[in-house]
């Protein structure tokens, strides 16, 4: 808001001075607007950041000689099938019957916690989880499985290609 100062024109010593017009611009509204815009843009940029889980994937190298063998007794395989179903087994495929569960705290999460404690108690080492998505599973299933790995704090897990024998297990149970 601009103000016009009309005072200051008076008689001094008999001389008539001209009136000086001083303009003063009130910038309060402009500063308020600037801070509102800054606040708006800071909030929208922090809300629009993508939230992603970091997954470190190894390079594709045909000459991989540094692979460490993992005992079958402490490896859990998770097969992601169709219709949001998960099958899991411990050890090698075909040697133990897979169990079908669902995602969530009463399904995959509960199984990971229980089996992780059992393997830790029996072998003294942590459990290794192999996640094997099938062609019939969707991206959400894989993300849900990775979320469960983070929630249950599984120390070692990998996303691995599914084997034909494991696809047959899914087909046999109607989850493919």
* Order of neighbouring strands in the sheet with most strands: 7-6-5-8-9
- Helix and strand element order: EEEEHEEEHEHEH
Largest sheet: 5 strands, mixed
CA-CA gap between termini: 72 Å
Which secondary-structure class do the elements indicate? Answer: alpha/beta
The radius of gyration is 34 Å
**What percentage of the residues does DSSP assign to strands (E)?**
15-25%
Strand element count: 9
Structural account:
It is a single chain. The protein is an alpha/beta fold and 176 residues long. 33% of the residues lie in helices and 20% in strands. It has a five-stranded mixed β-sheet with strand order 7-6-5-8-9, with helices on one face. It has a two-stranded antiparallel ribbon with strand order 1-4. A two-stranded antiparallel ribbon has the order 2-3. The longest helix has 20 residues, at 28-47. The model has no long low-confidence stretch (mean pLDDT 81).
Properties at a glance:
two-stranded antiparallel sheet, alpha/beta, 176 residues, 9 strands, 4 helices
Structure, briefly:
The chain has helices at residues 28-47, 108-123, 139-151, 164-172; strands at residues 2-5, 11-12, 15-16, 22-25, 75-80, 86-90, 99-101, 128-133, 156-159. It has 176 residues and is of the alpha/beta class.
Map the helices and strands.
Elements: E1 2-5, E2 11-12, E3 15-16, E4 22-25, H1 28-47, E5 75-80, E6 86-90, E7 99-101, H2 108-123, E8 128-133, H3 139-151, E9 156-159, H4 164-172
Parallel strand pairs: 5-8, 8-9
Antiparallel strand pairs: 1-4, 2-3, 5-6, 6-7
């Amino acid at each position: 808001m601009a103000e016009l100062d009309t005072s200051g024109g008076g008689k001094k010593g008999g001389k008539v001075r001209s009136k000086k017009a001083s303009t003063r611009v009130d910038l309060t509204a402009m500063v308020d607007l600037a801070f509102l815009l800054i606040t708006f843009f800071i909030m929208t940029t922090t809300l629009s950041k993508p939230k992603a889980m970091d997954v470190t994937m190894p390079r594709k190298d045909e000459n991989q000689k540094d692979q460490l063998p993992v005992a079958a007794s402490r490896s859990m395989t998770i097969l992601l099938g169709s219709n949001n179903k998960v099958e899991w087994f411990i050890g090698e495929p075909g040697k133990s019957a897979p169990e079908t569960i669902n995602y969530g705290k009463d399904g995959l999460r509960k199984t990971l916690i229980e089996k992780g404690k059992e393997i830790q108690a029996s072998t003294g080492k942590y459990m290794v989880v192999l996640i094997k998505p099938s062609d019939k599973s969707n991206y959400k299933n894989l993300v849900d499985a990775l979320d469960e790995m983070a929630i249950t704090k599984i120390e070692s897990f990998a996303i691995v290609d599914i084997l034909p024998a494991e696809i047959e297990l899914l087909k046999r149970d109607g989850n493919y």
